Q: What sequence folds into this?
């Protein structure tokens, strides 16, 4: 009997996994014993980290997306449709077109969504760069502001020990902001204030979610005259008065509120009823080694939808995806799972508009920050413009 | 720190490296070369290069090696197969005294291997077609 592998989500996790599955299982696929399908609700694949650059006028829309089909091996059956509900008991998904798709193995990589509406006033008064349209709107403001106060806040999910999307992004964008305003010659008239909430995963009262990086941040910020505060957990915003209030009782005025908003899983995942996450955030309970969804058979999850303590980043998908591919391949071939995820995340942080800092960490070791430099910046730029598409195709 | 200094002294004493006039001259030359690089902060780039190389080494894992090797094998394998075919076909064609007539060209299709090759071409066309079976998404 032919085994049907169904991958949901044409983002980075789903795309690299579908491509890698074909190359790993080619002997079975060529004999028609395995079939790989990828189902996504968009015919486009977006390089999401580039939304951050859109806010700084560094990327146009058509440079950060490709037709999904052009990134897939021809053996993959690509379907554009939206999953409305997961019917795990019947091993199938129901889509908005009314069609059902059956599977023997399911891989969920539907990512997460920014949810600024979950904090009163934030949607109306705040800005963010986690999607294209809001990033473009923010770019308008950053290109025209002449004086005032830009206030940066970071919001964590309420599920304990789950990070916000792309851990380093708030620092990256704060440094890029400083560079942009200097370039525009208005930096001396615009105050930048970076803040971090009291609770950030396992740390308390820090400036970042990992201790070693926390320790180097004050120096980096002071060199650039960026103000910083810890212990600011956004509670609500007054859009008329332009004041951000914190749970700790502080009030801060702003001209631009650049916020990392709350996030949640997509509706179909939240409504699947499998999540045990708090605040209806929808993260799937994930076996931190095998990447299976707890309590389900032959269902795997990766990327932003997991409830693991690792960064919700493409650099995590890159290490989680081969584990899932190996586990599905060994389950088909040997009847058991054979690989374990060690929590590894790799990335090149964009530290200001020009410099980059390669970094990596896993379940047992934190990031060891090194001095950002121009070569790291060139590496990041080449990743943004080219290498990423090879990663999505499962070649790197 | 002290131990390190002593070690360096030990080494220089035993080898007489820095007391040798030729070595000293070489060192002076080297320092002269380095001076403008240091002044222009260009030597920093070499240190950055070493740091980035070290990062790449540490960031590389077994999965990445596996994928890169697979890509390498596919590219090299594909190029090798294509190269062999071009060489063989070229050799055959070069040995023809006269270019084949249209009729004799058609007759070559009697050869099952030629037919298989033609089928391969058609299957390639099918693959290309499949790759393009989704209309280009609309630009908004
Ligand atoms: C501004 C920004 C900067 C970032 N910077 C970095 C960085 O520097 N480094 C890094 O490693 N990561 C970074 N990230 C994070 C990275 O982009 C994500 O972690 C990554 O995209 C997650 O991959 P995923 O496959 O889980 O989800 P996604 O890439 O979000 O893909 C989800 C896919 O699922 C589809 N989908 C959703 N719902 C359904 C449904 N119901 N039915 C069918 N399909 C559906 C979507 O259309 C999409 O194609 C950044 C993200 C942002 C937004």
A:
């Amino acid at each position: 009997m032919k085994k049907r592998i169904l991958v949901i989500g044409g983002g980075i996790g789903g795309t690299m996994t579908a491509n890698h599955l074909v190359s790993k299982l080619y002997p079975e696929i060529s004999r028609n014993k395995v079939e790989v399908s990828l189902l996504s609700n968009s015919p486009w694949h977006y390089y999401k980290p580039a939304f951050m650059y859109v806010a700084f006028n560094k990327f146009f829309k058509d440079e950060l997306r490709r037709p999904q089909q052009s990134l897939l091996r021809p053996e993959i059956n690509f379907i554009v449709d939206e999953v409305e509900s997961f019917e795990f008991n019947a091993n199938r998904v129901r889509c908005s077109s009314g069609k059902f798709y059956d599977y023997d193995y399911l891989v969920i990589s539907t990512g997460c969504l920014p949810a600024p509406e979950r904090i009163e006033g934030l949607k109306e008064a705040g800005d963010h760069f986690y999607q294209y349209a809001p990033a473009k709107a923010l770019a308008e403001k950053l290109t025209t502001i002449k004086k005032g106060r830009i206030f940066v806040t970071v919001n964590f999910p309420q599920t304990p020990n789950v990070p916000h999307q792309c851990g380093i992004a708030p620092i990256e964008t704060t440094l890029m902001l400083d560079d942009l305003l200097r370039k525009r010659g208005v930096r001396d008239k615009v105050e930048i204030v970076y803040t971090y909430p009291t609770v950030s995963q396992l740390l308390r009262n820090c400036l970042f979610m990992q201790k070693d990086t926390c320790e180097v941040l004050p120096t980096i910020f002071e060199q650039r005259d960026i103000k910083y505060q810890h212990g600011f957990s956004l509670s609500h915003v007054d859009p008329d008065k332009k004041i951000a209030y914190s749970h700790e009782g502080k009030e801060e005025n702003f001209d631009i509120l650049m916020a990392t908003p709350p996030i949640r899983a997509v509706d179909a995942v939240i409504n699947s009823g499998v999540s045990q996450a708090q605040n209806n955030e929808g993260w799937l309970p994930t076996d931190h080694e095998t990447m299976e969804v707890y309590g389900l058979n032959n269902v795997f999850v990766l990327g932003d939808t997991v409830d693991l303590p690792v960064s919700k980043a493409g650099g995590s998908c890159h290490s989680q995806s081969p584990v899932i591919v190996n586990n599905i391949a060994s389950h088909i071939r040997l009847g058991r799972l054979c690989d374990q995820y060690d929590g590894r995340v790799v990335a090149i942080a964009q530290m200001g508009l020009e410099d980059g800092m390669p970094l990596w960490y896993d379940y047992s070791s934190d990031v060891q920050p090194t001095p950002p430099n121009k070569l790291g910046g060139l590496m990041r730029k080449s990743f943004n413009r080219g290498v990423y598409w090879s990663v999505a195709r499962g070649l790197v | 720190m002290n131990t390190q200094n002593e070690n360096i002294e030990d080494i220089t004493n035993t080898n007489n490296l820095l007391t040798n006039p030729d070595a000293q001259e070489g060192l002076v030359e080297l320092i002269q070369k380095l001076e403008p690089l240091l002044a222009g902060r260009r030597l920093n780039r070499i240190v950055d290069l070493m740091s980035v190389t070290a990062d790449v080494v540490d960031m590389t894992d077994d999965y990445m090696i596996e994928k890169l090797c697979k890509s390498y094998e596919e590219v090299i394998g594909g190029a090798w197969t294509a190269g062999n075919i071009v060489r063989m076909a070229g050799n055959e064609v070069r040995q023809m005294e006269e270019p084949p007539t249209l009729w004799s060209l058609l007759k070559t299709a009697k050869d099952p291997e030629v037919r298989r090759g033609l089928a391969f071409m058609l299957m390639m066309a099918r693959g290309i077609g499949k790759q393009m079976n989704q209309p280009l998404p609309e630009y908004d």
